[in-house]
Automatic annotation (TrEMBL):
Its cofactor is pyridoxal 5'-phosphate. PROSITE patterns: AA_TRANSFER_CLASS_3. This is Aspartate aminotransferase family protein. Keywords: Aminotransferase, Pyridoxal phosphate, Transferase. PANTHER family: ACETYLORNITHINE AMINOTRANSFERASE, MITOCHONDRIAL, AMINOTRANSFERASE CLASS III. Belongs to the class-III pyridoxal-phosphate-dependent aminotransferase family. It comes from Alistipes indistinctus YIT 12060.
């Protein structure tokens, strides 16, 4: 008998998880993942905050096809002007403050973090890096070095030297940022740490300390970016502007794309002697930039950012009504439903998947489940997903 897709998946596709669900999905549309035999799931993960404008968004698909017909890839950075890159960079710059006007395109979130760390070392001439416990920044050696989860990091040592990890939301730790610090990298809302919001004043204190010491402040908005928290980037509602902004995930509208964004003054150190401070063959791929730009225009045109908070609040209200829910932490439509119990959370996730909804817990925070659907989700779809979730919680506590 011919092996089925699931068998081949487990046999030949390298796995990194010890609990792969391996759901068979044939098509995806809006918030729906559609499988064989009429199976379907409401997607509350969005590919981890990638599909912000919905799966198979027609505007994005059209942009991809149209750009693919013109050209796919022409040349590594610099030699040829690839117009989708220019148009996307200019559009993003219009929406960002004067400090963030120069966009360096890369392929992924990890690479955006790598580029940002390299840029900060180069610009300041310093080597020490500061990051926060429970932060997730990526899976390459540099990004791993500043990542907070010890168990994911330790088997790859030695990593970058000179990394200090502070406690998130503990202003007293900020004293450890000094004139030797090249940069501080922070997720303004910790994602894989279980949606931890910054305490009032914390980001401001961080900004002040960086200004005092000359360290660059890097915001990793790879998960919080592109409208998910209600503004294009979270820093815009926090009122604290970083020196370097890292973006990826939904930045490519579902295609692989990331960027680190800074001022022209800081960015231009990459072209001072020695030149070619960061090189990438595919970073800013024209098809990905066209997709990202189409997704951005859709996001803006449909007013999705403005709706994120009300949609999040609708979930929050429904979830808080269940006695097993200890807390809901939320920024727009990026949310953690806290049970304070990892085994219970796992049972809820399993039951939800069986009954038509895809969710999961967080990498460094197994006691809460994730709600981060496409921002296009309707009130009816929110209510339908709440019914599945509440039933799954009932089932898991019984
Ligand atoms: N930073 C944050 C905050 C992330 O959530 C992620 C991905 N989960 C990354 C960096 C790494 O992005 P990528 O997987 O595209 O390398």
């Amino acid at each position: 008998m011919k092996p089925n897709l699931r068998q081949l998946f487990f046999e030949h596709v390298g796995q990194t998880s010890d609990f792969p669900m391996g759901l068979e999905v044939e098509r995806a549309e809006g918030v729906w993942l559609l499988g064989p035999n009429g199976k379907k799931w409401i997607d509350l993960i969005s590919g981890v905050s990638v599909s912000n404008v919905g799966h198979n968004n027609p505007a994005v698909v059209e942009a991809v096809c149209s750009q693919a017909r013109d050209y796919l890839h022409l040349m590594v950075y610099g030699e040829v002007i690839q117009s989708p890159q220019v148009r996307y960079a200019a559009r993003i710059a219009e929406l960002l403050p004067p400090r963030l006007q120069s966009v360096y395109f890369v392929n992924s979130g990890s690479e955006a973090v790598e580029g940002a760390l390299k840029l900060a070392k180069r610009y300041t001439g310093r080597t020490e890096l500061v990051s926060f416990k429970n932060a997730y920044h990526g899976s390459t050696h540099g990004s791993l070095s500043v990542m907070g989860g010890e168990e994911y990091r330790n088997s790859y040592r030695p990593l970058l030297p000179d990394v200090q990890q502070l406690r998130f939301n503990r202003p007293e730790d900020l004293e450890q940022i000094t004139a030797r610090t090249a940069c501080v990298i922070v997720e303004p809302v910790q994602g894989e740490g279980g949606i931890q919001l910054p305490a009032p004043g914390f980001l401001e204190a961080l900004r002040r300390r960086c200004d005092e010491t000359g360290a660059l402040l890097i915001f990793d908005e790879i998960q919080t970016g592109t409208g998910r928290t209600g503004t294009l980037y979270y820093f815009q509602q926090a009122g604290v502007t970083p020196d370097i902004l890292c973006t990826a995930k939904s930045f490519g509208g579902g295609m692989p794309l990331g960027a680190f964004i800074s001022s022209d003054g800081i960015m231009s150190t990459l072209k001072t002697n020695p030149v070619l401070g960061h090189i990438t063959t595919f970073g800013g791929h024209p098809v990905c930039c066209a997709a990202g730009l189409a997704a951005l225009e859709y996001l803006l045109g449909e007013g999705l950012m403005q709706q994120a908070d009300a949609k999040g609040a609708r979930y929050e209200q429904a979830m808080r009504a269940h006695p097993a829910v200890k807390e809901v932490r939320r920024a727009g439509l990026l949310m953690a439903v806290e049970f304070g119990d990892a085994a219970l959370c796992e049972r809820v996730v399993q039951r939800a998947v069986e009954t038509g909804l895809l969710t999961e817990w967080f990498l460094f925070w197994p006691t809460a489940l994730r709600i981060a659907p496409p921002l296009t989700i309707t009130d009816d779809e929110i209510d339908a997903s709440c019914r599945i979730l509440l039933d799954a919680i009932d089932h898991a506590v019984a």
